# Entry
Amino acid sequence: MKLLEINNLSKSFDGKKVLEDISLSVEQGEVVSIIGPSGSGKSTLLRCATFLETMDDGEMSYCGKKVVTSKNGRAVYPGKSDMQEAKSKFSLVFQNFNLFPHYNVLKNVTDAPIHVMKRDKEEVYKEAREMLKKVGLSDKEKAYPCELSGGQQQRVAIARALVMNPDIIFFDEPTSALDPEITAGILKIMRDLANEKMTMVVVTHEIDFARAVSDKVIFMDGGFIIEQGKPSDVIDNPNNERTKSFLKKLSI
# Structure
């Protein structure tokens, strides 16, 4: 089943095209990694997919239901209830954690399920503690973000995403603000999620991770999808010269 389908997405900022004719799909249980140089449009694509940016034109469906349609060369967004339904399908883990500094760990993880999704408080607390255990932070539920390392804050962010029970989790360069030792721990959690068949879309510079964990790799450059396919094709045997050049610079 296709959980996400995007067709012919385009996006400009101040008249400058940053995404051009982007089409992709994400199947249930699939891990899709998006790689490419800085400024290639990777994060903007994720922001469009999660409604943090509005696309100029194109179509988008979640779980088989059309959310964004195209009319006369412009993207048309639905009403509030349809938007809320689409937003309930995914969670997003940010590069810089985006935790509430005045909430402790447990409140950061439980706030949205209780107050936005209106779920049972005790049930949410139980799930939150299970997720904190999963990411190795059972002993930190009363701590505040300022008392945690960057890696611990990112683990909280992942627990918060999981408690929303999403169909897809989007990760926007989740390790770029972390040092290599801490990065390894975050990538292990993500590998474990992949093994559990969690559907994930990951913008990443971690090429070894993309190779090992992804079902599909998308290489972007200059606002276009240049190449997409299995890691063994896109990373190990790329067809396009731009892909080859990018990977060569990374000494892969």
Notes: The CA atoms of residues 8 and 21 lie 4 Å apart. The mean pLDDT is 94. The chain has nine helices and eleven strands. The two ends are 33 Å apart (CA to CA).
